[in-house]
Amino acid sequence: MYQVVFLAGLVALASASPAAQGIDFASINAAPSPSVTGPPVSVNSQSFNYNTASANAAGSAAVTGIASASASGSQAANSKRNFSPSTTTQKVSTGTATTSSETACATVPEAGTSCGFIKPENSCAVQPDGYGPHVTPDTVAAFTAYPEFHTQAKAAKAPAGYTRTFADLDGSLSGSTYLGLYTLQSYDVSLCAQHCDSTALCTGFNIYVERDPSLNPSPNCTLPSSITNYKCTLWGSNVDAIIATNEGQYRGQFQVVIAGSDGFTKTNTTTPAQCPGWQQPQNCGSYAHNHPSTCIGTAFFSGPYDPLLCASYAQAQNALNSKSNSWKQWMQSYNALQCNFFNAFMLKKNGRPLGTYCGLYTQSYGAGEATYSPGWQGSDYWSIESSWGFSIINGARSW
Ligand SMILES: *[C@@H]1O[C@H](CO)[C@@H](O)[C@H](O)[C@H]1NC(C)=O
Ligand SMILES: *[C@@H]1O[C@H](CO)[C@@H](O)[C@H](O)[C@H]1NC(C)=O
């Protein structure tokens, strides 16, 4: 089944002003898990439509009210590396749901079919693809041991621009930053990279071999013979072995397993797209900005890394703040109500990428002033990747 999904099921967690500072670990721990963490069983192709309007809407939804920084003038950079997160209020909003589209049929379809074609999700329907070798004997043990799956996974070379992060594992990736699935005709690493390159927000991919049923397992076909699929999944974050946790599952009595799983990333070498109204971003690597006295607010969005969410949040916050009476009371050189800079980074908990974290600030900071790395908080290790700083383009008021 081919499925198109609109990337809008974003959860915004915003920390209200004026106490906002650093990362609000408690509210992230309390956030609901994302609904999609990998390809659904029995779907052989799934693509995510990036929609700027939904990103803008999700970013704007993080605004909880008029917000201002505590500082009354511009501040020197705060280079403290440790602080206690403050208690903040939180607001949860969920976007629109998953959609799959079906086009109208040219003729009246036969019952049980889609425009006359057998639907793969029907009981005992023949499953598509299966371009890999037929493993004999047809057992999980023979599939897992099949030499070709391991030799090709170990021999795969990183496509230009990518780095291999793991090779020949028995698990595929599962996590919050999933961006789609393609089923390929061979273990084609460069084709998978091309799919990533043409997908908005994609900075990493996973290619693997999967033992799948030849018929959709149902009471009348409990244990169909297997087929071998080459699968390619796309990710909006680094792809590390720590999230290669999907080792298959049972479909009825049929056991799905995975072999030859490789990960490739270009996350460290990808510059995010410029956000309208903001200058070219500055790379802060794995350090966040943390300047509590000039911070207007923070927000977290579960899902692939997307600085446009933070830009939209900043813009909507400025739009609301500029309507406040105190906006005019500030001198032109400094305004505690105006976001002039934001930091957008991918937040990771125990090595697993969770989503985009945004910090809004009244003044601009250089990349060297991003010195905060969260580290251990209780029994969890928090870290940062893809941290970028965006300064407003002076005069480019779009609120
Ligand atoms: C299973 O097979 C029986 C006998 O051929 C048929 O009547 C029944 O509809 C089938 N059930 C399903 C779920 O396809
Ligand atoms: C990306 O950068 C981080 C931080 O510098 C580093 O730890 C990691 O190994 C890099 N990943 C790759 C694949 O180069």
From TrEMBL:
<feature type="compositionally biased region" description="Polar residues">
    <location>
        <begin position="80"/>
        <end position="92"/>
    </location>
</feature>
<keyword id="KW-0732">Signal</keyword>
<protein>
    <recommendedName>
        <fullName>Apple domain-containing protein</fullName>
    </recommendedName>
</protein>
<feature type="region of interest" description="Disordered">
    <location>
        <begin position="75"/>
        <end position="99"/>
    </location>
</feature>
<feature type="signal peptide">
    <location>
        <begin position="1"/>
        <end position="16"/>
    </location>
</feature>
